[in-house]
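Below sits my pick:
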Amino acid sequence: MMIKGLWDKIKLVCGNHPDSDNMVMEIRKGAFSPFYACPKYTQNIYNGGDYCLNRITSVDYEKMISHIAEEVNDMIENDEVPNLQNLKWTRNGVEFKILVYTNNEIVVSVLNKTALKGLKTHF
């Protein structure tokens, strides 16, 4: 069962920055499909400044939504009050962690280890 309004409650933040709350990931137009990326995604890549290649595909985003919905449904079925604060999981090299979980907002930190492999991380 999908949770009503779940998509609207979720805010992705880049897990590659210590102060992730200020690094809300943005939807970007890709060659084949949209993706979510750090606001510093390739921003300064050509002039030697800080940049960040942290990103997830729209498919990864949909799988994340499904995972959150399944966790909430499992808690409800077990007569528990849903609270996913600090829930962590990894899927296809992407680490997810729920930083904030309220009725109005779910803040998820995203760190794509595969995309960042061999690059400077945690500015």
Notes: The helical segments are 6-9, 58-77, 113-116. The two ends are 39 Å apart (CA to CA).
